[in-house]
Specification:
With 362 residues, this protein is mostly helical. It has helices spanning 7-24, 37-43, 47-69, 71-104, 106-109, 114-122, 133-152, 156-172, 187-203, 210-235, 241-250, 261-284, 289-300, 302-322, 329-361. It is built from 15 helices and no strands.
Length: 362
């Protein structure tokens, strides 16, 4: 099965979660009149794509080996992961959504009664900002069971074909299997990143080495070409007349919400570029050691980082909506506290883990 951890995967997962935090706090970087870096951050965001791909990659690498020897044990582990996601999600609903509903009322519920809003939230029928992310993985982990059975029997092309067909169907109606409020990340289309991760984990594993560095270069070049092409097509209509005419005549556009064909090529090539550049940076040690260690620390504890971030982001939401301040100085302070508290907490739990390992060895 290989090593239980991969230094590069921890590093890349850390980059992905930093990207997520940056996206959610992007409005606070618009400090100069007429200059909006938040737009650039939005255009280069690959957080959800990265999390889906990495979740699939880890399943395709670790869980497939379990399925090959003991399918029932593999199913139990996936069910355990699903229950853990539900547990964390319900805790956040009780400790974040419930107080916000009580204190802010219609600013949160948007027309529903407080009770109806909370019932819908517990039934995964509400798309509350940030709190909608964890439930996205529940149907994907459920689908992972038949996917791993297919891989166990060597049917890689069947799985790839299934994912592509579902993506095509999803582009005709991304909310086909939607229950309740329209999902921000409809699983029927976003599953393609997850299953590409599963297939990658099955084929390449997670122990990236110098040989894979050479094999990555052609794929890096291809990703760069696709990304540049999509970028020119997506934003070139402001400067190139035939692109504007083409987009107008055929109604072509690059969408993320919901994800469409061109959106997949744009976001997919962006994710691939980020993945390859992160690997080159990690392998060549282009990033200072202390910064690389912090990024990897966030990657090793990405779920904890996410949960802490949700609490701080919702605290900022409460502050700005309850007090309606004229300036955002306190919000900036909370953003910095989010990073500081996260690093402090992660350093502490890593020390505890090291201490426990030492005691076990003794």
């Amino acid at each position: 099965m290989g090593n239980s951890r991969s230094g590069f995967i921890d590093f890349f997962r850390g980059i992905v979660i930093f990207d997520m935090i940056l996206v959610h706090y992007s409005k606070y970087v618009n400090v100069m009149p007429g200059f909006q870096p938040s737009k650039l951050i939005s255009y280069t965001d690959f957080a959800i794509e990265g999390f889906l791909f990495l979740s699939g990659l880890m399943l395709g690498h670790f869980y497939l080996d379990i399925f090959k020897t003991d399918p029932l044990k593999g199913c139990r582990k996936i069910v355990s992961r699903i229950l853990e996601i539900i547990r964390i999600h319900y805790i956040m609903l009780l400790t974040i959504s419930l107080p916000l509903v009580w204190l802010l009322g219609s600013k949160v519920t948007e027309g529903d009664t407080n009770l109806a809003y909370m019932v819908k939230s517990f039934l995964f029928m509400e798309q509350t900002g940030l709190l909608h992310i964890l439930p996205t993985f529940i149907p994907l982990f459920i689908l992972a069971v038949p996917a791993l059975y297919l891989l166990r029997n060597g049917h890689r092309l069947w799985l790839l074909g299934f994912s592509i067909i579902v993506f095509i169907v999803g582009n005709t109606n991304p909310y086909l299997f939607n229950i309740g409020e329209r999902t921000i990340f409809p699983v029927i289309v976003w599953q393609i990143f997850f299953f590409l991760g599963v297939l990658t984990g099955d084929r390449t594993g997670i122990d990236f080495d110098s040989k894979q560095l050479k094999r990555m270069i052609p794929w890096f070049v291809l990703s760069l070409i696709v990304f540049l092409s999509m970028t020119v097509f997506g934003f070139g209509h402001n400067y190139i007349e035939w692109i504007a005419q083409l987009k107008s005549d055929f109604g072509l556009q690059i969408n993320k919400f919901p994800l469409n064909y061109l959106g997949f090529f744009y976001r997919g090539s962006l994710l691939a570029l980020a993945f390859f550049l992160a690997f080159f940076s990690w392998k060549m040690q282009w990033i200072p050691a202390f910064l690389s260690q912090i990024v990897s620390l966030f990657g090793r504890n990405s779920l904890s980082v996410f949960v802490i971030h949700v609490y701080f982001a919702k605290l900022i939401f409460f502050y700005e909506n309850y007090f309606t301040p004229e300036t955002l100085y306190f919000s900036y302070l909370l953003v910095f506290l989010n990073i500081f508290v996260t690093i402090f907490y992660l350093k502490r739990i890593e020390k505890q883990r090291a201490f426990s390992k030492t005691n076990q060895s003794a």
